[in-house]
Q: What sequence folds into this?
């Protein structure tokens, strides 16, 4: 910002002053006040064009109200307002945003938007596009194993069922607030595989769930600590490595420096040492591990008795 003046510092820690010589005391005072306002103002906001995309079978002509909101999530502390909003038309809206990182969200009756992040910097205007999908509501009951305190929110991850022709996003992540032992939130309509999860707890999976505007009840979710599953998965990895090493020792004895009899003795010792723990694992912790792995990798076969040949 140029003030067409001589710039000087009144004091090392004082404000920046734009002074004009050769004026009366009253004139200099008025100019000084104006200069302080101009020189102390935040950086100029840049126009950010927000475009909207609608489902092909549901044009937005009948939408009564479309609202676009932006919240600044990162940036310098003196870069202006941290929120901005505007009423939008079917094609979108223009928001004036200061420097920083902004989370932009669109809302309209009967529609849901996942939002998008945009970074505003320099003097170059930017743009982004938001997709709006037919909205659905979902809710359920939540309990804690062991009487622990409920978390503040539940993370709900949606993965669209590929065979479903209805318009819906392929994936979505919802953060649903928990109040009084129940949770609820709004998301996209469609048929999804659902994962319900809270930080530090084992997830719950529900398959082929139809979400619509009438509301879907996902029933009761009990949050259990994730420790046992983590330990079980670690056991699977360690035991698998031991099995691979054992197979290599038995199949390729001639490439080693020790005799085949030595390796047979070593393998017998390994079996004697680890087989009891392995049998206990298949009867106990494997059930939790199997449930978790089936949720993460549903196309793989996870037998109930993993220890059977």
A:
């Amino acid at each position: 910002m140029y003030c067409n003046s001589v710039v000087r510092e009144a004091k090392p820690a004082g404000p920046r002053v734009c002074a004009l010589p050769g004026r009366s005391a009253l004139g200099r005072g008025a100019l000084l006040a104006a200069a302080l306002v101009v020189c102390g103002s935040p950086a100029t906001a840049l126009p950010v064009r927000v475009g909207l995309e609608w489902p092909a079978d549901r044009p937005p002509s009948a939408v009564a109200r479309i609202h676009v909101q932006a919240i600044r999530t990162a940036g310098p502390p003196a870069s202006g307002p941290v929120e901005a909003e505007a009423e939008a038309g079917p094609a979108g809206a223009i928001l004036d945003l200061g420097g920083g990182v902004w989370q932009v969200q669109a809302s309209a009756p009967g529609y849901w938007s996942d939002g998008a992040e945009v970074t505003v910097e320099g003097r170059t205007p930017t743009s982004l596009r938001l997709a709006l999908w037919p909205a659905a509501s979902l809710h359920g009951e939540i309990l804690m194993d062991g009487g622990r305190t409920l978390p503040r929110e539940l993370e709900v991850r949606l993965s669209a069922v590929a065979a479903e022709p209805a318009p819906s996003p392929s994936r979505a992540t919802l953060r649903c607030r928990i109040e009084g032992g129940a949770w609820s939130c709004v998301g996209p309509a469609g048929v999804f595989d659902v994962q319900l999860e809270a930080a530090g707890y084992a997830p719950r999976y529900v398959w082929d769930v139809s979400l619509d505007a009438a509301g879907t009840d996902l029933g009761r979710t009990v949050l259990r600590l994730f420790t046992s599953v983590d330990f079980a998965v670690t056991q699977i990895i360690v035991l698998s490595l031991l099995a691979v090493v054992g197979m290599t020792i038995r199949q390729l004895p001639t490439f080693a420096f020790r005799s085949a009899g030595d390796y047979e003795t070593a393998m017998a010792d390994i079996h004697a040492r680890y087989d009891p723990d392995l049998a206990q694992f298949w009867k106990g912790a494997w059930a939790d591990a199997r449930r978790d792995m089936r949720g993460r990798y549903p196309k793989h076969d996870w037998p109930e008795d993993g220890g059977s040949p």
